[in-house]
Amino acid sequence: MIPFQYTRANNVADAVRLIAANSGAKFIAGGTNLLDLMKDNVERPTKLIDISRLPLTSVEETASGGLRIGALVPNADLAWHPLIEKRYPLVASAILAGASQQLRNMASTGGNLVQRTRCAYFYDTATPCNKRQPGSGCSAVNGINRGHAILGASTSCIATHPSDMCVALVALDATVHVTGPNGGRTIPFADFHRLPGDTPHIDTNLGPDEIITAIEVPAKGFATNYSYLKIRDRLSYAFALISVAAALELKDGTIQEARLALGGVAHKPWRDVAAEAALRGRPAEEASFAAAADLLLRDARPQAQNGFKIDLAKRAIIRTLTQAARGTPQSQSNKTIQ
Ligand code: SF4
Asked: What's the DSSP call for residue 298?
């Protein structure tokens, strides 16, 4: 690890001023990803700006009936918050599917959005990686790519986004509140993360001098018919090979509205509004779910080692939508898939 300065921001304006003044600086909150990256010499900030004591830890109801979640609410607190459990159980379930209890205690809501890929080459500074060092090449394209992307990849990068919580948030039409030198703005969740293109080193559309202050979820939480299913190599403390967030609004067995998003398949949480539209007006049964899965996966392209993900994704989509339609969401404590 290289030497770095440390300072603590007193308020949001102070944090923005400090980050805008130093292009080599990074914010640190829970540090659950950044400290690993620094130990591995992947991230080398010249200054850490500690934002962990900023007053961004509340969960408040909005005038429009939604919730505004402070960026520094710990993941564990969010998952067990009474309003999240009751009105947005899809978010709670996705959070509990990720990481470990200890990590969820430390990790912040805002930090969850800006965590970096877990592609092994990204963490190995002895190998080429366009995300770590632009222009150096992608070791995964012809390397070990069993866990890599099947949707939205480029020749520059085939990494996946590691978050579970973000898959639920994109499905629920969340927005991200950010503040920069010119004031505040909101970013629709679907536009927050980027596909790799030829700039895979830029993960998000958050400006380098901006800070995430809150995540807002709209009133509709799909608390009756939802499920988050995560398929992984071992049942805990592993990143998704495929994960699915599904939410339905049903009337007499017919789908009135559907939300469908995938994790573990792309450089960003992958939501497909065309697949959702195809479910509208259809009976909540396997044939409808299979047709939506085929539509969602229409542009899926396997890497050399991960062709199995396409079929796995189809089966996971059908299973998750079935769980949502039945009102029997996937348990994150008993991980038996039913
Ligand atoms: Fe780097 Fe992306 Fe290639 Fe992984 S997939 S080696 S993160 S460029």
From this structure: T
Boundary residue ending a domain (17, 36, 52)? 52
Residue ranges lining ligand 1, Cβ < 6 Å: 117, 119, 121-122, 129-131, 138-140, 157-159, 200
For 161-209, the pLDDT digits (tens) are 999 999 999 999 999 999 999 999 999 999 999 999 999 999 999 999 9
148 inside domain? no
Please write the tens of the pLDDT for every residue from 254-284.
999 999 999 999 999 999 999 999 999 999 9
- 333 in a domain, yes or no? no
CATH number, position 274: 3.30.390.50
Distance of CA 163 from the midpoint of ligand 1 (Å):
17
Q: Which residue owns the Cα nearest ligand 1 atom 2?
A: 157
Which residue, 203, 122, 197, 124, is CA-closest to 161?
203
Question: Is the Cβ–Cβ distance between 159 and 123 less than 8 Å?
Answer: no
Q: How many domains does the structure of the chain reveal? A: 2
Question: pTM to 2 decimals?
Answer: 0.98
Q: Which domain holds residue 27?
A: 5-52
Write the DSSP assignment of 59-77 as a string of letters: EEE-TTS-EEEETTSBHHH
68 in any annotated domain: no
